[in-house]
Amino acid sequence: MGVYGGDGHEGPAEEDSHKPPRFFSWRTDEQIKGFATRYFSLVHFHVIEPGQLHFQLLTMRHPG
Question: Where are the beta strands (DSSP E) in 1-64?
Answer without folding.
Answer: 2-5, 10-11, 24-25, 41-48, 54-61
